[in-house]
Amino acid sequence: MGNQVKVGICQIRVETDKHTNIVKGQEMIQKAAAAGCRLIVLPEMFNCPYQSELFPVYAETYPGGPTIGMLAETAAREKVILVGGSIPERDENNRIYNTSYIFDESGKLAGRHRKVHLFDVNIKGGTVFQESLTLAAGDKLTLVDAPFATIGVAICYDVRFPEMARAMMLKGAKILVYPAAFGPVTGPLHWELLMRARAMDNQVFVIAAAPARNDMAEYKAYGHSLIVDPWARVLAAADEGETLLMVEIDLDVVDEVREELPVLKHRREGIYPDVNS
Ligand SMILES: O=C(O)CCC(=O)C(=O)O
């Protein structure tokens, strides 16, 4: 029998024009829904080039803004759970966050994740990025109850913190969704390894949604969106071009793996008390 759900990732190539990104996002969500996807995921900063100085310019405040409006309306029209990648969000105190808005099948806001770990790195001869120049950090885990499973949502650099994935799993997540935008330096080294590791450690599905590479962009996304099962097997993978990645997942596999290879039951929290999750 199984508990099957088709999931889709819209690997959008982000352009400079915000409206173009919104329209493309909507078209790809519609295509995924028409192909039977019930859970659809967009990448990190899908409406905005990944550049710190542009985040305040492209930011929107819930419930206003054309991107947020498109996400809510499209989720309701297509009757899908929509993890709307992320966009720059401006709060009432004028702080900007890297935020994922998640809408349910009726278009109601089901959750909102503000990226917890900001990407401030200086890799010699490689990537230099400082999100904290313009962004503030979130301080909460985000879990959403879908009809088929509890879903944990975190953003990009958040995946490097295994404690966070573990905490979401302990709160019941069977699917972890990571809207992300790795670059050409850490992408080839760590992207698949991290996503498969989080799936393996926590015996969950991992859905990692990346933007397609845009050669005109200052920050060249690595692409390679992935869907990984609780055995850490890659069920579907994209290359770096714009594409819709879809696959059917069977949620019963989560319980099967946890039964057959009971590492989660074998945890001995008393031996590692410093891990606070
Ligand atoms: O962790 C990485 O290597 C990339 C992270 C990133 O690009 C981000 O958080 O936006």
Automatic annotation (TrEMBL):
CDD domains: nit. Its EC number is 3.5.1.111. Residues 5-251 form the CN hydrolase domain. GO terms for biological process: asparagine metabolic process; glutamine metabolic process; oxaloacetate metabolic process. GO terms for molecular function: 2-oxoglutaramate amidase activity; omega-amidase activity. It holds the Pfam family CN_hydrolase. It comes from the Bacteria. The keyword Hydrolase applies. SUPFAM superfamilies: Carbon-nitrogen hydrolase. Keywords: Hydrolase. The keyword Hydrolase applies. PANTHER family: NITRILASE-RELATED (PTHR23088), OMEGA-AMIDASE NIT2 (PTHR23088:SF30). Belongs to the carbon-nitrogen hydrolase superfamily. NIT1/NIT2 family. This is 2-oxoglutaramate amidase. It comes from Methylomusa anaerophila.
